[in-house]
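Let's practice the habit of predicting before peeking. Look at the sequence and jot down your guess about where helices and strands might fall. Then scroll down.
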Amino acid sequence: MPNTPTVDSLDARILGALNDDPRATVIALADKTGLSRNTVQARLGKLETQGVLHSFERRIEPGALGYPLTAFILTSVMQRALSRIAAALNGIPEVVEVHGLSGATDLLIHVVARDADDLYRIAGHILDIDGVEKTTTALVMRKLVDYRLTPLLKQLVDKD
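Done guessing? Here is the structure:
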C-alpha cells in the first residue's frame, strides 16, 4: 500500500465541509468549521501537496452520456507486461478506472458501455491487449451503496 499521509480531526472537519459543498470558498469553509481562513488555506494546501485531495471532477452519471451499462472485468495478466497493459487500458475511453489486485485476479477494470454488444466489443478489446491472459466480465445489475467517504470523515471528527 502507498504511504498515504494521515488526516487528523481538523483536516477531517475541513474535508467534511468541502465534501458537503465542493464549491465552497476558503472563507465559507472557515465559517462552517469555525477555523481561521489562514488555517483552512494552509491545511488545504498541505492536503493538495500530499496528494490527499485529488483533482476536482464532478461525478457524472454515465447513462447521461449514452453509457447505461456498467461492468467489472476481472483480468489476469502477465506481470512483466503490467505497465504496458495499464497504458493500453488508459487509451480505452470506456474504461472508467482500473485497480491492481492481490489474489487470483490481477486487475479489476471498471467499464461503461452503450449496450450488451458494446460491452462485448470493449471486453474483446481488453482481451486483445498483449499480455492479457484471461477476462471474466460481471455486469452491474444495481448500485446498492454509492461511493462515499462522509461516514469515515464523521468518524474521525467524532474521535476528538
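How did you do? The two ends are 27 Å apart (CA to CA).
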